[in-house]
Amino acid sequence: MDSSTPEMPQVFDLQSTPDPRISSLIAQFSHQYGGQPSYVSRAPGRVNLIGEHIDYMGYGVLPMAIEQDVMIAARKNDSLIIKITNVDQKYKPYECSANVDSSFIDSSAPQWYHYFLCGYLGILEVLQQRGGLQAANFGIDIMVCGKVPPSAGLSSSSALVCSSALITYQLLSQISLTKAEMAQICCDCERYIGTQGGGMDQAISFLAEKGYAKGIDFDPIRACDVILPKGYEFVISHCLAEINKAATSDFNQRVVECRLACQCMAKQLGLQWKGLRKLGDLQVQLKKTLKEMLDLVDELIHSNPYSKKEILELLEADEEQLMTTSLSSNTSHLTHFKLYQRAKHVFSEAWRVEEFKRLSCTPEVDANRLGELMNESHVSTRDIYECSHPDLDMLTDLCRKNGAIGSRLTGAGWGGCAVSMVPQDFVNSFMQTISTEFYTTERLKGKDIDQVFFKTTPASGACVYKC
């Protein structure tokens, strides 16, 4: 499918868009497989400016795509085998049947190639459901080249899933899928790896436009342009603490705690709690403002952790019902849940996103107030949602002290990156100071500083190049 519309991922002729990195990827692919790829897909990472840990609760977020991306070169082969390699030799090659299923993905110990399989399976299942493909009758040669820093909160894993789905779609599909549909497919299929995200990473990867941040809402996925204030730049800085959210229960524990807060509030209000899983849906049912929802949390939920026994009594449910309606396989072992804190963060962060968007649309943007909202967001993720990291807190403090009007964690947290809003007039001195004071040789441990500390502007979304 080489034609595209604004609603569909774009396909470019490589001859008209020369790119040295793509040329290098094609050359390495040709050396590995003995011939050129048919296509190269590209999906960007992202930085979320504000709106952390609320997409999976049904609330809008405000990310932008970054220039760092994941590219995949691919072509069909006759072997009925998927052969996956990476230009970075530290990632070992992998082969499997083209008729692989989700049992090949070990969510308890995810490997880099499992993220490719997520995207591949997501498209394969859609094609099978729509009658476009019953079973794969050929294999695929794959080479991956990723430039999004891993475990940094910049969506490297989702960029790989999106790039995988896009290249698979390009090679196999006889049906049309819009960008929003592709984003939803990628959100759904990433759950094979064990994460229960809300769709922000996949949505911005497909829906991004150069020069704009995006206000993204869900159910269904949709986006609007957000123009960022002139005279300011956004700087990404990695605290150098890393965590793989798919390999721990921390992320999914927060999802479950929010879900339980929603269900416990619904039960006390006489609603059908079993069908409610998102705090945003609860707000819609109650027809209340975000401020009113914050008051309702104070009224209905106590601030001490809830034991599983207490939740079962409140919901009038047994453990089997709780497992079916609320928990996940990697959170079934939990015995205590912080419902009050998680709900307070979600509703207050959702309000901050709306305020950030509202202010961004005013003729004379109050940039200092935008910075304050970013700082308030970091305090909430640090103190209420408890998903920050001491090194990340130290880095955001340092950024604020040296010229950033706003600095906050971005991504899931527990390490990873901060995003800072810095006046253009001070950005060079800001970067020099942070480079000197934070990125010492001992802390970098051989890492390239340009890969962990850089300015960024809103980049374009996922696309395909025809070779």
TrEMBL record:
GO terms for cellular component: cytosol. The keyword Oxidoreductase does not apply. It comes from the Eukaryota. The keyword Signal does not apply. PROSITE patterns: GALACTOKINASE (PS00106), GHMP_KINASES_ATP (PS00627). GO terms for biological process: galactose metabolic process. GO terms for molecular function: ATP binding; galactokinase activity. Residues 366-422 form the GHMP kinase C-terminal domain. Keywords: ATP-binding, Kinase, Nucleotide-binding, Transferase. Residues 28-76 form the Galactokinase N-terminal domain. Residues 123-207 form the GHMP kinase N-terminal domain. InterPro entries: Galactokinase, Galactokinase_CS, GalKase_N, GHMP_kinase_C_dom, GHMP_kinase_C_sf, GHMP_kinase_N_dom, GHMP_knse_ATP-bd_CS, Mevalonate/galactokinase. Pfam families: GalKase_gal_bdg, GHMP_kinases_C, GHMP_kinases_N. Belongs to the GHMP kinase family. GalK subfamily. This is GALK2.
